[in-house]
User: What shape does this take?
Amino acid sequence: MFRIHMHTALAAVRHFSTEATTMKLLSTMKSEEKPKTIVKPKTSDGNSTPSGRDTLGRRLLSLVYAKRSAVITIQKWRDEGHMVRKYELNRIVRELRKLKRYKHALEICEWMTKQHDIKLLEGDYAVHLDLIAKIRGLASAEKFFEDLPDKMKGRPTCTALLHTYVQNKESEKAEALMEKMSECGFLKHALPYNHMLSLYISNKQLEKVPGIILELKKNTSPDVVTYNLWLNVCASQNDVETAEKVLLEMKKAKIDPDWVTYSSLTNLYIKKGLLDKAATTLKEMEKKTSRKARAAYSSLISLHTNMRDKDGVHRVGKKLKSIFPKMNDAEYTCMISSLVKLGEFEEAENLYSEWTSVSPTGDSRVSNILLSAYINKSEMEMAEKFYNQMVERGITPSYTTWELLTWGYLKQKQTEKVLDSFEKAVGSVKKWNPDEKLVREVYKNLEEQGNIEGAEKVLVILQKAGHVSTEMYNRLLRVYAKAGKMPLIVAERMKKDKVELDEETHRLIQETSKMCVNEVSSKFL
Assistant: This one.
């Protein structure tokens, strides 16, 4: 029966999405940094493999570069007379996934499918599907699922496939698959419903949340993830009353709240100004922190910051460093940002200096925090000095870096630097998503000055980025009108750019046609 159901589902939703993650395997995984050296590869818990001991896992974890082949490594190991065991390969795949080394993990999975002496289970195929989705994309993941033996199209692989829809925000496909999974009796656990809750939250389809929770309760019992997602919805809707009912229901069901539970509640209380309640849930949250819940410390720091609790920020920060002497970039970002928000600027600068001395990543997102702070304080000389130091340290400016500088120069009315930073911002990304507010302010600045050459230059930048519109041309024409000059063949230029003229365009062309011809525009024809 399932075979019929699944072929029907696949016909209805032809192209499956591709971020499949395998249920319980993924839920237990901790994110860790990639090993920094080839000589002593580390496992995901940060421990080096035994020094001097040659193992298959050691060899495969040493393949830091993606171009190197896991298959060749396995074959060489076997040729040397060693045994290759499935349980060992599964463990290595788990380690590689934790380290986000998906290509080599996929190569191992594919090698196992070709070995007649290795018996694969549904969970193995679910992992394989996840890796195909990550490496090869949508079509390949769908094809893999379609080609699976019918007996392997069970709950694990279907749930993994469902998760791909969630990751790609494919509501219709996810709902169709959920219906087929229901018909096949695969919805006896909370996980598929949790995936749907995540999808509806991500797609802002919050009106569907009560229905999916009701359906979940008919078929199975909510787990802590279900309740946390529900609380997340309450927080987004500023619904304190429902949130407190959810917490009460959770406790009645004898489900122990975790740090995420109390983080959501604290965030909601802070937003509603209920600081006494926020302080209480924050204390409960801190009781739930542990070495295994590393992300909880950054959340605690952010929540203490939002409560303007400097002592709390410093206390949790010290606790974090005592447990994890080597902070990661995300933790430095959180801590530096919190110190800036609290006005502890000197401490933020000192912590940034510490980061530059210990982190090899050169992540501009950390630097951009201080750059933004200098610009917000209208200290452009300091911002420029800081930017130059970034470059000297080998930190590559990002789009955000250039965008921040553009805003800073706009405040200072430094037009040449505005145009230079704006051009570098747009050129720093493969595909630019227009920041309408920034473009509007750039043109406003140019209009105030009657700066025709600058306005034409901005239009050229926008043309190269593929984002020319009627409004952009109207802004250009307003600069010409302010300068009292007539542009050349604007209508023809707009036609070439496949941009429509509107009433405002016609009015501005008519207005500027009575003015003197401007020679500048001919340079941009």
Summary: The longest strand covers residues 485-486. The CA atoms of residues 189 and 441 lie 52 Å apart. Strands lie at 485-486, 516-517. Residues 1-51 have pLDDT under 50 and may be disordered.
